[in-house]
């Protein structure tokens, strides 16, 4: 069993995915900016190696892929941004930054790791999981930048699912609002958080373990016949309405 390479490994969803994969006995290689947090999480999880770096540095991807080893069972790109501004306040450089972190980063991560993912597939498959958002499928105000960037991620996932078949499966997970540090600007105010929670058929916000459990499943052999899918972990937000 090869390692699973996780970008954003110390973030809320990245760390939850790491814990879920270790529960399945996968060895890991985690990538994140904060070396101290990486080392602490690796010590907690066991059988985990790390690379510290920023996904804005294109050299990071080759370095992380090499450090993770020549055979990978999977890759998870759990990196994202939340930049919510109306059309009139968005600047081109902000949109470019969101695209670079979310979409270009995902592309570079898979490109660098593809040989190891092919080697790790053996006679079966390896699994790649990218992260989108419910905002791609739904029209939310002030979400232009993140929806554009994550829409590109969904297009990338479908393209790579075709191009890298049959040995590498590629899927995307599309969460709704989840209680992570990245989303604290939206979830810290409980009145606002409860209002958003009430818009979901399952009337709560997500927790990292919701998305992490699905990501770990999609990496695993249990999902061996699943590829080219965008799967919502969203309390029904993308498909179900209980009011009006």
UniProtKB/TrEMBL annotation:
Residue ranges annotated for the Ketoreductase domain, each copy included: 2-176
List UniProt keywords, sorted A-Z. Oxidoreductase
Stated name of the protein: 3-phenylpropionate-dihydrodiol/cinnamic acid-dihydrodiol dehydrogenase
**What family does this belong to?**
Belongs to the short-chain dehydrogenases/reductases (SDR) family.
InterPro entries xrefs: KR_dom (IPR057326), NAD(P)-bd_dom_sf (IPR036291), SDR_DHRS6-like (IPR051122), SDR_fam (IPR002347)
Organism the protein comes from: Methylobacterium crusticola
Pfam families on file: adh_short_C2
SUPFAM superfamilies according to UniProt:
NAD(P)-binding Rossmann-fold domains
Record's superkingdom?
Bacteria
**Name of encoding gene:** hcaB_4
């Amino acid at each position: 069993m090869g390692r699973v390479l996780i970008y954003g490994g110390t973030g809320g969803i990245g760390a939850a995915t790491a814990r879920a994969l270790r529960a399945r006995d996968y060895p890991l290689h985690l990538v994140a900016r904060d070396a101290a947090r990486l080392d602490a999480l690796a010590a907690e999880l066991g059988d985990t190696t790390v690379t510290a770096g920023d996904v804005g540095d294109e050299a990071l991807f080759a370095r992380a892929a090499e450090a993770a080893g020549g055979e990978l069972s999977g890759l998870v790109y759990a990196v994202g941004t939340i930049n919510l501004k109306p059309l009139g306040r968005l600047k081109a450089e902000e949109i470019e930054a969101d695209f670079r972190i979310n979409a270009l980063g995902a592309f570079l991560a898979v490109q660098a790791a593809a040989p190891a993912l092919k080697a790790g597939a053996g006679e079966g498959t390896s699994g790649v999981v990218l992260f989108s958002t419910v905002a791609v499928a739904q029209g939310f105000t002030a979400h232009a930048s993140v929806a554009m960037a994550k829409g590109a991620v969904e297009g990338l996932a479908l393209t790579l699912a075709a191009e890298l078949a049959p040995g590498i499966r590629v899927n995307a997970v599309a969460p709704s609002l989840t209680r992570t540090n990245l989303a604290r600007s939206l979830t810290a105010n409980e009145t606002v958080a409860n209002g958003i929670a009430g818009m979901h058929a399952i009337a709560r916000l997500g927790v990292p373990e919701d998305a992490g459990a699905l990501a770990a499943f999609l990496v695993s052999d249990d999902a061996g016949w699943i590829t080219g899918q965008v799967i919502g972990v969203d309390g029904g937000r993308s498909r179900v309405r209980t009011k009006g």
